[in-house]
Design brief:
Layout (H helix, E strand, L loop, with lengths): L17 E14 L10 E16 L9 E19 L3 E13 L5 E13 L2 E14 L3 H4 E3 L4 E3 L5 E12 L4 E11 L2 E3 L5 E3 L3 E15 L2 E12 L10 E14 L3 E12 L5
Antiparallel strand pairs: 1-2, 2-3, 3-4, 4-5, 5-6, 6-9, 7-8, 9-10, 10-13, 11-12, 13-14, 14-15, 15-16
């Protein structure tokens, strides 16, 4: 038995090679209508051009070693605004759209806000964010040619709606959070390692808690996460995962070299299907 099921070109050896490059050019402006730390601090806007280059062996040139190169371009425009209300509120919003080119029709919208209160001069913060995106499939998800795998797809765009809420008490190392994501027409890789597209929506829910202890340079950090997915074949996730970081931090040379010595630990339940 061999490791690979298929050998399309050479039954004895492979020399598959791929290459990807993206160059982004932007022209942007930033305006400060009033106080930079005011309710409307800055307004941003601009346009840009993405130049994509993808290279791989073409079917007829695999044995000769010649590389097929494809150049694609995408135009985009973006805008953003952010502001503060003293130390009690912080907000912002961003928008990006690709009107034409390789990623024509893609867009990203996001907004965030945070409210803070102070008890004995120590902050307590409640923050939230929202995002909406429509994204073209990756080039390699639609096009692939190698000795063991090859495909030519025409996948639809993927969509995602996501929001999250977090509660933070920084002075006590406490953070609690919740986020919800709705994925539309998700592209995933099946058990045969081939890309597929789910026709419909997948819901992903996450709840996490974090508590950090700091005792005179000794740090005991704990983070636990619970995740639920409505389709484990499309988006496989562990139900429970945890991260522990125990370390001692100290100055080796004051204001020059600071050292951390410790150990990290990770755990998650089984999630492969």
């Amino acid at each position: 038995d061999t490791y690979y099921k298929d050998w399309f070109y050479n039954p004895e050896k492979s020399r598959d090679s791929t290459y990807e490059r993206i160059i982004t050019n932007r022209l942007f402006v930033q305006a400060q209508p009033w106080d930079r730390n005011g309710a409307v601090g800055t307004i941003d806007g601009g346009v840009g051009l993405d130049i994509h280059t993808y290279s791989q062996f073409a079917e007829k040139d695999y044995l000769s070693g010649k590389i097929k190169r494809e150049n694609l371009t995408s135009w985009f425009a973006y805008a953003g605004v952010q502001g503060k209300i003293r130390k009690y509120a912080d907000w912002g919003a961003n928008f990006k759209i690709y009107p034409s080119g390789y990623r024509g029709g893609d867009y990203e919208i996001s907004a965030r806000a945070a409210l803070s209160a102070y008890i004995k001069k120590k902050p307590i913060t409640l923050s939230g964010s929202f995002s909406e995106a429509m994204t073209s499939p990756g080039y390699w998800q639609n096009n692939w040619n190698s000795n063991h795998y090859r495909w030519s797809n025409n996948f639809k765009k993927e969509g995602e709606t996501r929001f999250n809420i977090a509660f933070l008490v920084p002075d006590y190392g406490i953070e609690l959070g919740f986020w919800q994501s709705i994925l539309r027409d998700k592209i995933y890789y099946g058990a045969d390692c081939m890309p597929k597209q789910h026709d419909g929506t997948v819901s992903v829910t996450s709840i996490y808690a974090q508590k950090d202890f700091n005792i005179k340079g000794l740090h005991l950090n704990h983070r636990a996460l619970v995740q639920l997915t409505s389709n484990r074949h499309v988006v496989p996730l562990p139900l429970v995962s945890a991260f522990l970081s125990y370390y001692y931090e100290f100055w080796v040379k004051r204001d020059i070299l600071r050292l951390q010595i410790g150990v990290d630990g990770r755990f998650n339940t089984r999630y492969f299907v």
